[in-house]
């Protein structure tokens, strides 16, 4: 087992997740099998109950694990799916230790952080690594070195490096090299302090990734090398990048791939970045542009919609047109005439997932604009449920139509609680989560987009479309074109509209730079097509 640990110093938010993902990509480009584990030193068992406002998007894995958004970066950079055991939290570790203690597994011993908690951490890492079958496992430690929360994890990793022996583990430390003063001096002191802190725990970094606004001058690299005891070729400069997908090549250009394989005693084959470079080249082609409106609730914190943003980057890297996302706050929208006018001029609309009543009216208004004016629309999860409600209100003339999530006593519950889950009281664990099989109707728009009639997509929801309204939807032009194996409505579309599609699942979680998701591709293609047609020649959207 070979392990690469990535820690962070000085401040959080240095892009450790992107560094870790990129290191993985460098190894993978050399034909080495890799996997990544994220350690989150918080007490939450998983990210499911965490507010995306505080922590960014909750990423969902195939197995239904609600994970930290970095797992999404790993999947996108590696182009492979991960499982729940790859997100280790303090909550999971302590829960396991306490369960074992209650069962009497510790045979009367005093249960302590060292060796019991650290032992459980090592066991979890080894188990996840072993199950993945990868040659190299990268472990990203969340937070910054010196945080009380991360101490047991760093101690466990120190112990692990001792147990695995020389040459089996590399420690990559990410730090900040700020540029200060009138002449723009790069400062190495924070890096020195943070490396000292790491050494006090007994970990000697083997590589330093210095983040900052500008590339490091050779003398600054030399200084860090001298003070921190790493060879100059192991001091890597990663200045801020406009596009995160450039980072693997920034690292590669500084010889990181070769250095890392040498450290771990792995063969250093010629890396293959053909597809990756194709993606980046097409991304920058800039042939035409579209503006996609996104109406959501957490628009101030863009990280809460990270996978959607990335999915559009992937499409840009396939189609070569510029995609501008315009963010609209769903709550302000109904009262903001100027914003509504701007929205009407958008080339497409995405309404992503969401929870609760806030902002619902704004989403409905935006969807109505798209439906009635032939603007391409993609509704994801809540955005799909909202499309059904909008249709019921404005086409079926049921003004009270709503989701019982918003109005529990509505006379027209077009979206309501999944029958089996009505009884579940605890918030964590009451959702329909993870990958499910969906059958698409032959000849439907969605089947044509996927070029298949059987798909697997990831879910995260509690409510669903009420089947009692389906006949009326259908007779007025809104069709069900996808269902789960147990008959739930998964896809709705308006065949007479140029592009109006809602999906109960989350396609954004499966989009990858080298394999953009077909629905996002189709939405942007529809937006491009619409730009070419003069507005008065556009087809009439719906029957009603
Ligand atoms: N709030 C809705 C539900 O629970 C949609 C969830 C979502 O968009 N992720 O069903």
Task: Tell me what you see in this structure.
This protein is α/β, with parallel strands linked by helices. The protein has two domains: 2-91 and 129-272, Rossmann fold; 279-533, 3-Layer(aba) Sandwich (Rossmann fold), CATH 3.40.50. The strands form five sheets. A nine-stranded mixed beta sheet has the order 13-12-14-15-23-22-21-18-19, with helices on both faces. Strands 5-2-6-1-7-10-11 form a seven-stranded parallel beta sheet, with helices on both faces. A hairpin with a 6-residue loop joins strand 22 (489-493) and strand 23 (500-503). Bound molecules: glutamine (GLN). Glutamine binds at residues 353-355, 381-382, 405, 460-463.
Summarize the structure.
This protein is of the alpha/beta class.
Main features:
9-stranded mixed sheet, Rossmann fold, 2 domains, globular, alpha/beta, 36% helix, 21% strand, 7-stranded parallel sheet, 544 residues, binds glutamine
Described by its quaternary structure, the protein is single chain
CATH class of the largest domain: Alpha Beta
Sheet-strand content, in percent, reads 15-25%
What ligands are attached or bound here? glutamine
The value of Rg in angstroms is 25 Å
Lateral strand order in the biggest sheet: 13-12-14-15-23-22-21-18-19
The separation of the N and C termini measures: 63 Å
* Count of distinct structural domains: 2
Q: Averaged pLDDT, please?
A: 91
- Please count the beta strands (DSSP E, at least 2 residues each): 23
Could you name the ranges where pLDDT drops below 50 across 5 or more consecutive residues? none
């Amino acid at each position: 087992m070979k392990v690469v640990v990535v820690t962070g110093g000085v401040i959080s938010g240095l892009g450790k997740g992107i560094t870790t993902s990129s290191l993985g990509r460098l190894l993978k480009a050399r034909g080495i099998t890799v996997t990544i584990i994220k350690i989150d030193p918080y007490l939450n068992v998983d990210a499911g109950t965490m507010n995306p406002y505080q922590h960014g998007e909750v990423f969902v894995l195939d197995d239904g694990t609600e994970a930290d958004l970095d797992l999404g970066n790993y999947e996108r950079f590696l182009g492979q799916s991960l499982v729940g055991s790859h997100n280790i939290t303090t909550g999971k570790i302590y829960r396991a230790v306490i369960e074992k203690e209650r069962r009497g597994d510790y045979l009367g011993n005093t249960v302590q952080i060292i060796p019991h908690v650290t032992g459980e951490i090592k066991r979890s890492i080894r188990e996840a690594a072993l199950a993945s079958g990868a040659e190299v496992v990268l472990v990203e430690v969340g937070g910054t070195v010196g945080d009380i929360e991360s101490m047991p994890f760093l101690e466990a990793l120190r112990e692990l490096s001792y147990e695995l022996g020389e040459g089996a583990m590399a420690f990559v430390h990410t730090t900040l090299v700020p540029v200060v003063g009138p002449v723009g001096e790069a400062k190495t002191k924070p890096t020195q302090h943070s490396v000292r802190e790491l050494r006090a725990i007994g970990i000697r970094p083997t590589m330093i990734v210095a983040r900052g606004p500008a590339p490091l001058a050779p003398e600054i690299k030399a200084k860090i090398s001298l003070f921190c005891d790493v060879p100059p070729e192991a001091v890597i400069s990663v200045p801020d990048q406009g596009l995160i997908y450039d980072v693997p090549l920034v690292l590669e250009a500084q010889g990181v791939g070769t250095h890392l394989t040498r450290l771990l005693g792995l063969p250093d084959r010629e890396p293959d970045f053909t597809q990756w470079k194709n993606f980046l080249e097409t991304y920058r082609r800039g042939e035409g542009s579209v503006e996609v409106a996104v109406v959501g609730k957490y628009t101030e914190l863009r990280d809460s919609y990270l996978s959607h943003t990335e999915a559009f980057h992937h499409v840009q890297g396939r189609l070569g047109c510029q995609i501008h996302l315009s963010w609209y706050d769903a709550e302000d929208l109904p009262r903001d005439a100027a914003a509504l006018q701007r929205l009407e001029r958008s080339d497409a609309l995405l309404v992503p997932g969401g929870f609760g009543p806030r902002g619902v009216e704004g989403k409905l208004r935006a969807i109505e604009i798209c439906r009635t004016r032939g603007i391409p629309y993609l509704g994801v999860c809540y955005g799909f449920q909202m499309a059904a409600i909008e249709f019921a209100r404005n086409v079926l003339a049921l003004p009270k139509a709503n989701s019982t999530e918003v109005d529990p006593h509505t006379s027209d519950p077009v979206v309501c609680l999944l029958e089996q889950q009505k009884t579940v009281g605890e918030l964590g664990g009451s959702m329909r989560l993870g990958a499910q099989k969906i059958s698409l109707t032959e000849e439907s728009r969605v089947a044509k987009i996927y070029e298949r009639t059987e798909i697997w997509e990831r879910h995260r929801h509690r409510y669903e479309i009420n089947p009692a309204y389906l006949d009326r939807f259908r007779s007025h032009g809104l069709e069900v074109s996808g269902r789960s194996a147990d008959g739930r409505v998964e896809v709705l579309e308006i065949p007479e509209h140029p592009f109006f599609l809602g999906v109960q699942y989350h396609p954004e979680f499966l989009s990858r730079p080298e394999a953009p998701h077909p629905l996002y591709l189709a939405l942007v293609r529809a937006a491009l097509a619409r730009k070419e047609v003069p507005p008065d020649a556009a087809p009439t959207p719906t029957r009603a």
